[in-house]
Amino acid sequence: REWRPVTYRKCTDTLWLLLFFLFWAGLMFITGYAVMAGAAERLVLGYDSFGNICGRKNTPVKGAPLSGQDMTNKKYVFFLNSCSLEMQSLKISAVSLCVSSCPQEQLNSLEDLQSFARNNGSCLCIYNLNISSYTLNPKAAELCPALPVPPSKSFPLFNRCVPQNPECYSKYASVLISMVNEMDVFHRILSGILAGRDTVVGLCFLALAFSFLLVLAFRFIRTLLVHTLIALVLFGLLFVSGVLWWLYYDYRNDPSTELETEKENVKFLLGYAIFSTIVTVVLLSLILVLRKKLQFAVQLFRIVDKIIGRIPFLLFQPLWTFLILIVFWIFWVAVLLSLGTAGTAQTTSGGQVEYRALSGISYMSWYHFVGLIWTSEFILACQQMTIAGAVVACYFNRNKNSPPPHPVLSSISVLFCYHLGTAVKGSFLITILRIPRIVLLYLYNILKEKENACAKCLFKCCFCWFWCQESCLRYFNQHAYTTTAINGTNFCTSAKDAVFILAKSSAKLASISCFGDFILFLGKVFVVCFTVFGGLMAFNYHRELQAWVVPLLLVGFFAYLMSHSFLSVFEVTADAMFLCFAVDMETNDGSAEKPYFVDQELLTFVSQSNKLTEGQKRRSMRPFCDNEDGTELQPMV
Fold it and tell me: Which function does this protein serve (predicted)?
């Protein structure tokens, strides 16, 4: 194929862009449905038996005369019969009310209830019973809580008034444990996310700060900084692995572990500890193997830094990507919470309200989850294409001292005008490889009680295979995006051309780019490692009724996405630079008619790297290479 750098443009993969629009039309339908049918506040704030959400103003429910009340100042859920609760169909059958405060002392009579209501403004009887009628109404015993009312305090997770009397607390806790254990994993994870929402947000900002500091560090990278980063990564991995093993041992030997969520925490902690230990051993081995070649990584980053210096605002590109991802993730979580609480309000014979789950919610949740993966990958693909387009424009510029004006804005305009479909197709392929891994994990959790050793090994092999396929596809996607920025061709054609040109020059460039990719990967591990460590310290203090290990996994995933989004500036710039170099060597011969675009510093670096590689080959195959002479490329002036 004839390479035509930045001279030919046409719209690419338009059908895929149309498919993406149709997919998002489905997401918008689910969003509207979730907003209309769901109420995430019920899960966050709690609600009474009459359809009122505690802590907010409510709208009336048809057939429920006590619904639609203003509960702004009544933030806690109080059960009239907290000492003898019963559970039916995953719901507590006792009547619950929204109250402004929980009784701190035991109330032994209706007079005590009346005095508590007048002094604290918290009515513990049914809403339509006046305070003055507590001792006069003959039905007060049915409309007020069972006496004596035990002292209680508010529970921070579900805003419940939990009795402090030992006998009542044991009965109350047993019912609550049964209810939580019989909830599906989806709702338990939602409860864990909501309970630690402040911690999750704080950890995401911590990952953002670490990522931004690493970007600044790589901008002025030196040999000492590389060794410091390696030392910090190893220390962090060893420390996090030790903390994970310690927490696993502590949880496993805790006699109070009764909730299913706590048992899941133990299982996840064991998996985290094993994974962290394996990663530590593998990275330590790679560092020992590549320790003598780290100087080339430093030189590579200096050249990349020189290119970034010619492109104003390129380092700010990940910030916009991060902000877009944050907005999308907030939207996604809000819709997910609404889907998790989607249900129709139905009144019972006593004027109470029950919420019944709607059919098809699980299918909508899976569709919504695919939207999370595809859209996140699409946003990251747009960033890669923007950076690659700016690097291509600066590389194929004859006057290196006068770079093209506004290369980032020009690259963004080209992306939106011509190549959005290519980004959609590349991100869709990544999504297709991720979905089987998620389905396998889902089946593994369903069949884990019936599995044998052979099935367990088969599941793990499938996980490993799909992960390897995804890693290879990400590598080729990135080069396909760069080829599209160079030649203006569609995804498949660009991928084929990229594979062809890389196959011809892989021996020269693969060993060079792997150094920088390895250092950048250590940077990502640094961000994830210390963010997860902060999460361990924060979540470990909130063990009760929380599936906090799953939110911690989400935090680690988001931390990796953030660090990848920021550090990919250097990764995409280096890979795009080497691909442009390979295209330059393929299409030009250094003559006056076809001079090279490469500058002297990059050419010298590639030549020195090739000499090192060839020297290593000659030492291993000296009898066959004694009479070979190498040639060195010279730049055209």
Answer: Choline transporter.
Of the candidates 85, 104, 103, the one whose C-alpha atom is nearest the C-alpha of residue 95 is 85
- Per domain, the residue ranges of the chain are 42-179, 185-344+353-610
Retrieve residue 142's tokens: 């049915």
Burial of 595 (0-12, 13-18, 19+ CB in 10 A): middle
Tokens at residue 613, please?
């590689």
Interval 334-356 mean pLDDT: 77
3-state secondary structure of 545: coil
pTM of the model: 0.70
Asked if 100 and 75 count as a contact pair (C-beta separation under 8 A), the reply is yes
Greatest CA span in the chain, whole angstroms?
A: 113
**Residue 347: its H or E element:** strand 343-347
Retrieve residue 250's tokens.
């502590």
Residue 226 CA to residue 241 CA, distance in Å, equals 22
pLDDT tens-digit readout, 224-247: 666 777 777 778 778 878 877 887
CA–CA dist 231, 229 (Å, integer) = 5
> What are 26-42's pLDDT values in tens digits?
999 998 888 887 776 77
Read off φ and ψ for residue 417, nearest 5 degrees: -85, -30
CA-CA distance, 43 to 340, in Å (whole number)? 9
Q: How many CB atoms lie within 10 A of CB 392?
A: 26
